[in-house]
Task: structure prediction
Amino acid sequence: NCDAVDYEGTCKNVLLWAAYVDTRYSGGEIGEYQFWNFGTKKWDKSSCQKGYRCAKMNCHQASSKHFKLLGVYKEPYGMEEWSEQLFKHEGYCVWDEDAYEFMQEERETIPQGCDYYVTATDTDGGYHMFYTMLKPSPWGNFTIGLYEDEACYVESYFEVEDCIYAQNNGDSSAVEEHLATVEQFNTNMNTFKVCQPCRAYNLNPDNNDDDQNSNDNSNDNEDGEGDGEMWGYNCYDDAGYTNCNQCYKFETHTDYEPAEAEDLERASEQGSILRIKVNGVVYGSGGYTSDPEFSYADVVVITLIG
Result:
């Protein structure tokens, strides 16, 4: 969004996410849901418990009947604070160890604003400065854009891959490595483009292991800490929390704001937002919809849309 620059006078990247409520939630915690398995491309019912419904955690699908849209929210300065909170809490428990380490390492390297990248010489011997910034791409993904001004307003006719190729003396493998890294980051973020509970969880039950459950934040509900999950699907995250309330962390540790119609319209025009229906209006493509009806007594879940 270059119409409303950030506090440094540069164009802003705005991240959007949506929250839903399950109007039929009956108190069974993780035990009344089945989850999408990205490996098998099927719904995994292994967490479902006897005596509870086995509902799909599918707020991201138009076919969902029990999830209703609570609201769409935005991170007005991009994904830096949001991803820090998401990765070290719920991300730690839903990704495997390799994926988590990869995401944390790459999170530190991707541009969080309009960052100086490199100075190159032109054919006349003059100097030309280039800048990088996250660039939205379809399906809620991103790539790294190359710009010619410190506000990242003027996109270069070169691409970051051209610079990488030149910096590595024409070694195309360096370009391939960069492209593979961006693709893997986007692939891992697909985990949060399907419905996920606000309350962090782990589908590998621990049977209430006391050693794992000994952390400094136990039962500190005022800081997002959760009680033990009734079936043992506990998330002992990288920040020392048990079953952290991810949405609470977004509210208290990021610059989150309610998204406005113009945010959704802009993202839809850019072609970078997943499909969502808000107040009767459909935005984006490739995503899903629910109607805005809810009760505060219901369970809340989230999904990333762009």
